[in-house]
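README, section 4: Worked example with a bound small molecule

Sections 1 through 3 covered apo chains. Here we extend the same pipeline to holo records, where the ligand is supplied as SMILES alongside the sequence. The molecule in this example is zinc ion. Nothing else about the input changes; the structure line simply encodes the ligand pose together with the chain.
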Amino acid sequence: MSEKTKFGKCPRCDTTCDMTWPAISRRDNKTGICSGCGGSEALFDMKMHRKKQLLKNEYNNDIKMQQEIDSQIVSECHWLIKVQE
Ligand SMILES: [Zn+2]
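The generated complex, written as structure tokens:
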């Protein structure tokens, strides 16, 4: 592999990760974000498309689960709450 890994900070979750080939944010179609955030945005949009509006319970359950798993992912959850307001 000739490509060197380029580490950078994901502007969405503030995590330093491999940004050699970043995912492109669905919010502006140009900002490079980490693959985890790319997946989160895609899932969020899929839920929005299916339900039009996420239920408050769904947010609360996600936050509780993600706090148990990894505090880093919680910052993404805070972003989701901002969208709902
Ligand atoms: Zn990220």
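What to look for in the output: The chain has a mean pLDDT of 75. The two ends are 45 Å apart (CA to CA).

Section 5 describes how to batch many such records.
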